[in-house]
Amino acid sequence: xxxxxxxxxxxxxxxxxxxxxxxxxxxxxxxxxxxxxxxxxxxxxxxxxxxxxxxxxxxxxxxxxxxxxxxxxxxxxxxxxxxxxxxxxxxxxxxxxxxxxxxxxxxxxxxxxxxxxxxxxxxxxxxx
Amino acid sequence: xxxxxxxxxxxxxxxxxxxxxxxxxxxxxxxxxxxxxxxxxxxxxxxxxxxxxxxxxxxxxxxxxxxxxxxxxxxxxxxxxxxxxxxxxxxxxxxxxxxxxxxxxxxxxxxxxxxxxxxxxxxxxxxxxxx
Lengths: 128, 131
Known about the structure:
Chain A is mainly alpha-helical and 128 residues long.
């Protein structure tokens, strides 16, 4: 069978989350996938929680008080970090998918990740 | 540089993800970078008080501008579509059988439609609370 190396299979699924010893591209792939799962989970959690807005000021502001909790704040920080990592890494994926910078993926990736770190730090200062 | 030299670096399509579904993901992605930047800016810099997030009163007031529910609903459709196509892509990487893939597609499509319907109801409910 020709070129089965990159064929998907259920058995290889979990190994993609831990690209130890593999190239930068595998790390970028894992980063994109882990943040994707986290952000999808957060999106639906976010929609459910915002349902409290329909229940009036008491229900919503009671929830807002909860966001002062340091553990919740840390969770929010994780979400913000995931947004920037996924979004900026995603820019690389879109560019290279349309043939832009395909041979400069590593530089693109590290460049965009530096931008992501900058924004994450900016938000960290805002949140603490 | 010739085409063949970059060929190994070009992405290959996922079996089970059509070009159209892929293209929707590629278009919604950059759109979300812009929309999420605005979303974070509004909720953590402009609209919020120095002490934290928008309160109930702030949100109701914010939604009185008729453009806001429209933008929020379009944003919701974009983000739900992108995230569920992405989730389906992750399922595809596990090489599911056709019947399982059909169930997954139905489940994710239903979840998407329900989420958007709920979101539209919520946005309109919030908008109707003021004034």
